[in-house]
Design goal:
Layout: E1 3-12, E2 18-26, E3 32-37, H1 49-61, E4 65-69, E5 78-84, E6 87-93, H2 103-116, E7 121-127, H3 129-140, E8 146-152, H4 157-164, H5 168-183, H6 202-209, H7 220-225, E9 245-250, H8 260-270, E10 277-282, H9 293-305
Parallel strand pairs: 3-4, 3-7, 7-8, 8-9, 9-10
Antiparallel strand pairs: 1-2, 2-4, 5-6
Helix pairs in contact: 1-9, 5-6
């Protein structure tokens, strides 16, 4: 099966943002399509050449189309156009300003776009923060149209920031500072470098670091070090998944606090229905699965086709 059609596409999120993407379609018509949710930071499907193209090829071999699109969190800062009252308006977004719950609007926009093209069976593939977004999407819209989920290298950004800023005392102090800025109408102001040398607004910093917020899907750091940061039950959103789910990590994922197998064992324990979950660790792979794209893509494509 060859990739015969690759199209640069654009669709609207349900709140009218114009989002660009690449649609890879197999030679024989299909009703099945996988939707890619990329990670944060400086991520973009247009710069993930190997992972995007190899995964598209393997999915197309299984007669599954593939939509890889840039969501509102692509790049650190990016101006996007919005359809407003019949005209276009620019809004500054990207990782620096994104709130994770807005992923619902991006995913629903993608599904609507694909339905208009005739697709009827949908899969979500989330890499890094994209895995967190799948859990958020499932939690708030459990009766959604997606049949299967693929979680690739889901991360504990809350726990990573906790360590980055120097521990619990400073972590709580900076969270309070961010909340004060947000309440004062300065949520879109970028945080100072003494908090973290990272391009991010107060609103997104708080969204990412709030232990009781939507972002804190995989609280590995809190779990293994008994940090007691959150009031909400740990892995709350993950535990609501009731659909077939594939979980994949790289053996050398640098964001798993030095023990990938322990992180995967935690997810196995917390899985709500063991029969619906499949767990894999790819030997020699890092967080980005660099150099292991072939193996990763084959695992994902064969699992989705099964």
């Amino acid at each position: 099966m060859k990739i015969t059609k690759t199209k640069l596409v654009q669709f609207e999120s349900t709140d009218n943002l114009f989002l660009p993407g690449l649609l890879f379609e197999p030679s024989k018509k299909t009703k099945r399509v996988a939707i890619n949710l990329h990670g944060n930071g400086n991520s973009s499907v247009f710069y993930s050449f190997n992972r995007t193209n190899i995964l598209a090829r393997e999915l197309n071999k299984q007669r599954i189309a593939f939509l890889a699109f840039n969501n509102r969190g692509a790049n650190y800062i990016k101006k996007l156009k919005m359809d407003k009252n019949g005209g276009e308006e620019e809004i500054k977004l990207g990782t620096a300003y994104e709130l994770i719950k807005d992923c619902i609007r991006d995913v629903d926009g993608a599904i609507k776009f694909l339905e208009e093209l005739g697709y009827r069976e949908f899969y979500l593939i989330g890499y890094s923060t994209g895995a967190n977004k799948i859990c958020v999407y499932n939690f708030y819209k459990p009766m959604n149209k997606v049949s299967k989920y693929v979680l690739l290298g889901g991360g504990d950004d809350t726990g990573i920031f906790h360590n980055l800023v120097g521990g619990t005392k400073k972590f709580k102090k900076y969270l309070e500072q961010a909340k004060e800025q947000i309440d004062g109408g300065n949520g879109r102001k970028l945080i100072p470098k003494y908090i973290a040398d990272y391009i991010i607004s107060y609103q997104s910093f708080y969204d990412t670091c709030n232990p009781d917020g939507d972002y804190n899907i995989f609280p590995f750091n809190e779990c293994i070090n008994n940090l007691k940061l959150s009031k909400k039950p740990m892995f709350k959103e993950y535990k609501t998944i009731k659909k077939p789910t594939l979980v994949v990590y790289g053996e050398n994922d640098e964001y798993c606090f030095g023990d990938v197998r322990r992180m995967v064992d935690i997810l196995k324990k917390e899985a709500p229905n063991k029969k619906l979950f499949d767990f894999r660790i790819i030997e020699g792979a890092d967080h980005g699965f660099d150099g292991c794209e072939e193996e990763l893509s084959q695992i994902v494509a064969e699992w989705l086709s099964g």
